[in-house]
Amino acid sequence: MSVYTPVSDDEMRVLLQDYAIGKFIALQGIAQGITNSNYFLTTTQGRYVLTVFEVLQAHELPFFLELKQHLSQRGVACPAPIARRDGRFNSTLAGKPACLVSCLAGRDTSLPTAAQCFSTGAMLAKMHLAGADFPQHMANPRHAAWWQAESQRLLPLLDESDAALLHSEIAFLAAHPDSHLPGGIIHADLFKDNVLLADDAVAGFIDFYYACNGSFVYDLAIAINDWARQSNNQLNPALQAALLEGYQSVRPLSSDELAYLSIAQRAGCIRFWVSRLLDYHFPQAGEITFIKDPNAFRDLLLDLQ
Ligand SMILES: Nc1ncnc2c1ncn2[C@@H]1O[C@H](COP(=O)(O)OP(=O)(O)O)[C@@H](O)[C@H]1O
Ligand SMILES: N[C@@H](CCOP(=O)(O)O)C(=O)O
């Protein structure tokens, strides 16, 4: 259950006075999600999603909300932020940053079809192209410098073979950076639970709160690693091919990007192996943490090497 901050109907009615989206009808907590408190809001003008941010701070929100507006205006399937009467997108509720976005149709899936992988790849490529004229820049907070630094805390806690793997893989990635490859705005966390699907079509990408600047092939690799990963933590070749084909139907990869793809997939494994290991070994007191299996990405990494 991911409604950590309770919001009463009366609090919502007060907040709605700052928006021109009609009168309050109903507010319903959303069970899915891990990090933030999300609600479906129904007003006399339509349906919206209210997010109360549990970790992000108010000054960090404008980048993500302005990015979502930029992308949604360019036909990328993602929630459009709702502007307040004063023009801002970000509000405050229960002392925490909050926002309203458009409510999308569709549901996520844990067992995607090849057609859904194709659509997701195509929409990711569309997002990469649409971000080209977004004027703001955000460094990736969870890339090489981050996994290099965080691995120092983890190495003493891992068994010998995992420690050797993590150490050698980080050294390998440092020697094979992606900085020469085409890049721009990336989602950086396009797992299956961050895509709403309506049958085979993408209804919307959600959870843009790791979006940043990076190489496009790294973003594609993160998506492939999750969308094509089977329960044995190996990739399903048909799903991987479908996502890649969908991506290339919109934005063909250069020969340099194609040559780098398997390294980008290894980088994607390190990114999420490290974050899941940190959640496991250093659960934050008072922070809401749902620990996902770190070994999934270790095992996939071993398979990709
Ligand atoms: N714009 C939206 N339209 C429809 N449903 C949404 C929207 N945003 C979020 N949701 C629903 O809320 C759930 C949690 O959202 P998510 O962004 O993953 O939360 P968290 O940041 O807490 O991980 C999603 O799985 C989806 O069901
Ligand atoms: N999709 C990720 C979770 C988001 O990353 P984190 O760095 O906030 O843990 C996963 O499945 O591990």
From TrEMBL:
It catalyses: L-homoserine + ATP = O-phospho-L-homoserine + ADP + H(+). Keywords: Amino-acid biosynthesis, ATP-binding, Kinase, Nucleotide-binding, Threonine biosynthesis, Transferase. Pathway: Amino-acid biosynthesis; L-threonine biosynthesis; L-threonine from L-aspartate: step 4/5. Its EC number is 2.7.1.39. Residues 27-253 form the Aminoglycoside phosphotransferase domain. Pfam families: APH (PF01636). One of its GO terms (biological process) is threonine biosynthetic process. The keyword Kinase applies. GO terms for molecular function: ATP binding; homoserine kinase activity. NCBIfam families: PRK05231.1 (NF003558), thrB_alt (TIGR00938). Belongs to the pseudomonas-type ThrB family. This is Homoserine kinase. It comes from Paralysiella testudinis.
